[in-house]
UniProtKB/TrEMBL annotation, chain A:
GO CC field: plasma membrane
Protein name stated in the entry: Peptide/nickel transport system permease protein
Domain ABC transmembrane type-1: 94-295
Family: Belongs to the binding-protein-dependent transport system permease family.
From TrEMBL, chain B:
Membrane topology: Peripheral membrane protein
Subcellular location: Cell inner membrane
An annotated Gene Ontology molecular function: ATP hydrolysis activity
Protein's UniProt name: Peptide/nickel transport system ATP-binding protein
Family label: Belongs to the ABC transporter superfamily.
InterPro entries according to UniProt: AAA+_ATPase, ABC_transp_ATP-bind, ABC_transporter-like_ATP-bd, ABC_transporter-like_CS, Oligopep_ABC_C, P-loop_NTPase
Entries under Pfam families matching the protein: ABC_tran, oligo_HPY
Cleaved signal peptide residues: none
CDD domains (UniProt xref): ABC_NikE_OppD_transporters (cd03257)
Keywords assigned by UniProt, alphabetized: ATP-binding, Nucleotide-binding, Transport
Organism: Allorhizobium borbori
GO biological process, one term: transmembrane transport
Stretches assigned to the ABC transporter domain: 5-254
TrEMBL record, chain C:
Residue intervals of the ABC transporter domain: 6-251
Record's protein name: Peptide/nickel transport system ATP-binding protein
Biological source species: Allorhizobium borbori
An individual GO BP term: transmembrane transport
Top-level lineage group: Bacteria
Membrane topology of the entry: Peripheral membrane protein
Location(s), subcellular: Cell inner membrane
Main location, first listed in the record: membrane
Keyword Zinc-finger: no
Length: 308, 327, 332
């Protein structure tokens, strides 16, 4: 078990390192922060001074080594724009993002999984067809289209909900809905197919042949088996709690991480962008790790591979 | 007579870890097996799951490399798996295994799949391809219209025929069949076994026929080797070995075969589980299930010795025949 | 007549409008051992899955299934649930995948004990251990909390049997219980089934494509072909003198371990697709003694003088004038 966790941690570490390296290189090759920050008309010596101040005049690998060193000492850099600690800026925005993504995740779980399971248990029924149709609709419509549609309906036509901002709890409703609809569709479809697969397994027939009531067959025999594939998707969704709101926050002018990322990329605010990407990678990696551990707990066969 | 295939002292081990924390320990799946196959001859290999018979089959074809010993095919050492020389040799030796649905590509028609080896091994010019496929299909008893079908549209027996036709396409000299009829109904088993024998007689193909079903092996094999935990424990001609088995394990196998019309009650049934290679008993591996076992059996591995004319056995309790000792 | 435990009458099953079972009549008396034999796809398993309501929802079932005189067909799901496990238990071909992979073995057995015998906690555990002992699981106490993948195929089938025994059933339906197992383990499982029947007095229905295996455990055998019973009788009589060419074919196809090594005698062709059943006797296209009449008339299952039932126009071993077939064929 310790060995297992250690190898996974090592792999997680490498993944994160790859992400920040990639971000570091791409950001520096895609535009000059000095030009962007200071504007196209800035005098040449101002630009040079800016570059020197931020170390941008150093060779790339020197900058990279310095960056990695500072990360390991817990220093995530300073925003070129606000001159504030980058990590501080990012952390300040996290609650706003979570205010959207956590309710959205709960909605996805609360609607997607039961809908999928119900549909699987009542195949070919009207509800099943409805779930499939809704699910396909849900995850094929891009969230910016879905967001605009919802704004059109609830803000423009009905006028019952605000279309942007973060002032009251009502402001959160439309972004949360926009964000959850696609996930509900994905989860419903996944849960449905996972459940259908499990219900066709011989051990389900055994459970029925034992005399268990239908309800107990589903609850104590089918669901624990269907949980394994569903957990994969849920793990992915948990992993994107921080990163998953870029588009929606932009549509609804919600001051979360996503908006900060968009603004910082536009400004080439290197430290902030890198900090966000690092955090996104870290949450993804951690949730993956948790999912892997959950697998072992859910499916004993994965716990003791090749015991025979 | 020259051997088509000769295996000497083959050993294959793999690593097994118990649990996530456990230390990997080597497990001997095949533990010093020697055998020969003459051209056109059928060698049956019998054993329970865990006896290493499938691993042995893969080693004979060079798919699994032996960690010890060597395989000689047509007088030449087996080339390494995946090399061009090995690929070229594969045309001369083919594998047929239990699950034909897994062996076939579900997206290709039967005729396409049977023709595939013809292209790979460039056996015949393109223009003769269709004729050869039709010939192969006829040889295994598939109707011409079934060539256009996909694997899932055929029955289990028909699929196995298709797999065999594909194996025969490159005119092999050796066929290794791993439980080729075990998944089929008794009535269909007989069809496939008869077909294999006819094809073999017509084309002088040698066969290694691996199965846990003694009845089938007896009717197709000329010679039979019984395997237990990675070793051959008895070998003899199939007429002899089932009529007068010497090794207690062979005896137990023979008595476990149901005889139609006879109740099971009163027969001796071998107790205990099929052996686990990861947990090999000391001495003779069979001793925990053997009613004759004594201290010698528990401490010393019996060697495979001559036990009569044309037969060998590995058991401390089997007396070497007087004439064999004299000779 | 009231001594029949199970009575199937004219049981018919169809899937999506395709009929796969064409009216099965079958009685199971208390304590008797019956074999159901035939190739895959002949309706052996479907018969019992239908009787227990275990077929998928799209299956249409008609006819009558009576347990102790109580009708099940047309009854709600709860009526079937009351029979399953407690009155009739069933075990299946592939024991390893028939046990729930994520639940501990002990729990899977105690679940059935709670359901049928109202045993909970320590009492259930004790009884489950006793059952595991009874079916021959060594070291049951230590292995109580293991998962199915930690047992061999033969042991999984023993555990399935222990689970079936937990409901103290009157009938155990064993659907190809040994087909996936090694020869020596097959013999052990058959031996176990015989011993359990002797000890508990429960009736056994043994479903198999192998007449050899069936004849080891059963007294009476029904031979099924293409969704119908074609011959039924005592195993001894059937073996000594099979009357239906299909029964004969099934016996002949079994390779022998004794006597001369000879060419095997297969049954030519394959089981017909239920969507395209031949007119007349379904076996006629594969039957070497079929005459024209066989291709047009479907023989009914008829009581014979020796106590067996047979559905064949041209039974094996029928004394008849040598010229008769030619005359008949000419006439049709």
């Amino acid at each position: 078990m310790i060995r297992f966790i250690l190898t996974r941690l090592l792999r997680a570490f490498i993944t994160i390192l790859a992400v920040i390296t990639f971000a570091f290189v791409v950001l520096r090759m895609s535009g000059d922060p000095a030009q962007v920050m200071l504007g196209p008309d800035a005098p040449n010596d101002t630009v040079l001074a800016f570059r020197a101040a931020w170390g941008l005049d150093q060779p790339l690998w020197v900058q990279y080594v310095a960056y990695i060193k500072s990360i390991f000492s817990g220093d995530f850099g300073v925003s070129m724009r606000d001159k504030a600690s980058a990590i501080q800026l990012v952390i300040e925005r996290i609650p706003a993002t979570l205010q959207l993504t956590i309710p959205a995740l709960l909605l996805k779980l609360a609607i997607g999984i039961p809908a999928g399971i119900y549909a699987a248990l009542h195949r070919q029924s009207i509800i099943d067809r409805g779930v499939i149709f809704g699910a396909v609709l849900g995850f094929t419509i891009p969230s910016f289209v879905m967001g605009l549609l919802l704004v059109l309906l609830f803000s423009v036509i009905l006028g019952v909900l605000p279309s942007g901002g973060q002032d009251t709890w009502q402001h959160g409703i439309l972004p949360t809905l926009t964000m959850s609809i696609g996930g509900i569709g994905i989860l419903a479809r996944f849960s449905r197919s996972a459940m259908i697969e499990v219900m066709g397994q011989p051990f389900i027939r055994t459970a029925s042949a034992k005399g268990l009531r239908w309800k107990d067959v589903v609850w104590s025999h089918a669901l624990p088996n269907a949980a394994v594939p569903i957990v994969t998707i849920v793990g992915f969704m948990v992993g994107s709690l921080i990163a998953g709101a870029v588009v929606v926050e932009s549509i609804f002018s919600w001051p979360g991480i996503g908006r900060l990322l968009v603004v910082s990329v536009t400004n080439r605010d290197l430290a902030v962008v890198q900090c966000i990407l690092l955090m996104v990678a870290a949450t993804m990696v951690v949730s993956n790790l948790v999912v892997d551990l959950l697998y072992g707990w859910l499916d004993p066969r994965l716990r003791s591979q090749s015991a025979h | 007579m020259a051997h088509l295939l000769e295996a000497r002292d083959l050993v294959r081990t793999y690593q097994v870890r118990r649990g996530l924390l456990g230390k990997p320990t080597p497990v001997r799946a095949v533990d010093g097996v020697s055998l020969t196959v003459r051209p056109g001859e059928t060698l049956g290999i019998v054993g329970e799951s865990g006896s290493g018979k499938s691993t042995l089959g893969r080693m004979l074809l060079g798919i699994d490399a032996p960690q010890g010993g060597d395989v000689v095919f047509e007088g030449q050492a087996m080339p390494e798996f995946g090399t061009p020389q090995w690929r070229a040799l594969r045309a001369r030796m083919q594998l047929v295994y239990q699950d034909p649905l897994a062996a076939l590509d579900r997206r290709l028609t039967i005729a396409q799949q049977i023709g595939e080896p013809l292209d790979i091994h460039k056996v015949i010019p393109k223009e003769h391809r269709a004729a050869r496929v039709a010939e192969l299909m006829a040889a295994v008893g598939l109707r011409p219209d079934q060539g256009g079908r996909y694997p899932h549209e055929l029955s289990g027996g028909q699929r196995q025929r298709a797999v065999i036709a594909r194996a025969l396409a490159s005119r092999p000299k050796l066929l290794v069949c791993d439980e080729p009829v075990s998944a089929l109904d008794v009535s269909i088993q007989a069809q496939v076994v008869n077909m294999l024998r006819d094809l073999q007689d017509m084309n002088n193909i040698a066969m290694v026929f691996i199965s846990h079903d003694l009845k089938v092996v007896r009717n197709i094999a000329d010679r039979v080797a019984v395997m237990y935990l990675g070793r051959i424990v008895e070998e003899a001609s199939s007429d002899v070995i089932f009529k007068t088995p010497l090794h207690p394990y062979t005896k137990a196998l023979v008595s476990s075969v149901p005889v139609p019309g006879k109740m099971l009650e009163g027969r001796v049934i071998l107790q205990g589980e099929p052996p686990n290679p990861a947990n090999r008993p000391s001495g003779c591996a069979f001793h925990p299930r053997c009613s004759l076992a004594n201290d010698l059996c528990r401490s010393r591995v019996p060697a495979l010795l001559v036990a009569g004319e044309g037969r060998t056995a590995a058991c401390h309790m089997v007396e070497a025949p007087a004439d064999a000792v004299a000779a | 007549m009231t001594s029949n435990l199970v009575e199937l009458r004219d049981l018919k099953v169809s899937f999506d409008g395709v009929q796969v079972l064409h009216g099965i009549d079958l009685d199971v008396k208390r304590g008797e051992a019956i074999g159901l034999v035939g190739e895959s796809g002949c309706g052996k398993s479907v018969t019992w899955l239908a009787a227990l309501g275990l077929l998928p929802g799209k299956a249409r079932i008609s006819g009558s299934v009576q347990i102790d005189g109580r009708e099940l067909v047309g009854q709600p799901r709860s009526a079937f649930e009351a029979v399953r496990g407690g009155r009739i238990a069933m075990i299946f071909q592939d024991p390893s995948s028939s046990l729930n992979p994520v639940l501990r073995i002990g729990r899977q057995i105690t679940e059935a004990l709670a359901l049928h015998r109202n045993l909970k906690g320590e009492a259930a555990r004790t009884e489950a251990l006793r059952l595991m002992d009874m079916v021959g699981i060594p070291d049951a106490r230590r292995r109580f909390d293991l998962f199915p993948h930690e047992f061999s195929g033969g042991q999984c089938q023993r555990l399935m049997i222990a689970m079936a025994l937990a409901g103290d059933p009157d009938l155990l339906v064993a659907d190809e219980p040994t087909t996936a197992l090694d020869a020596t383990i097959q013999a052990q499982i058959l031996d176990l089934l015989i011993a359990l029947r002797r000890e508990t007095g429960m009736a056994t229905v043994f479903i198999s494509h192998d007449l050899g295996a069936v004849s080891q455990v059963c007294e009476r055998v029904l031979v099924m072909y293409a969704g119908r019973v074609v011959e039924q009788g005592e195993i001894g009589a059937l073996f000594d003198a099979p009357r239906h060419p299909y029964t004969r074919g099934l016996f002949d196809a079994i390779p022998r371990l004794d006597g001369e090594r000879r060419r095997l005698i297969p049954i030519h062709g394959t089981v017909p697709d239920p969507r395209r059943l031949p007119e007349g006797c379904a076996f006629a296209p594969r039957c070497s003694s079929a005459i024209d009449a066989c291709r047009h008339l479907r023989p009914d299952l008829t009581d014979m003088a020796d106590g067996r039932r047979l559905a064949c126009l041209r039974p094996v071993g029928e004394a008849r004038p040598a010229a008769a077939p030619a005359v008949l064929e000419g006439a049709l």
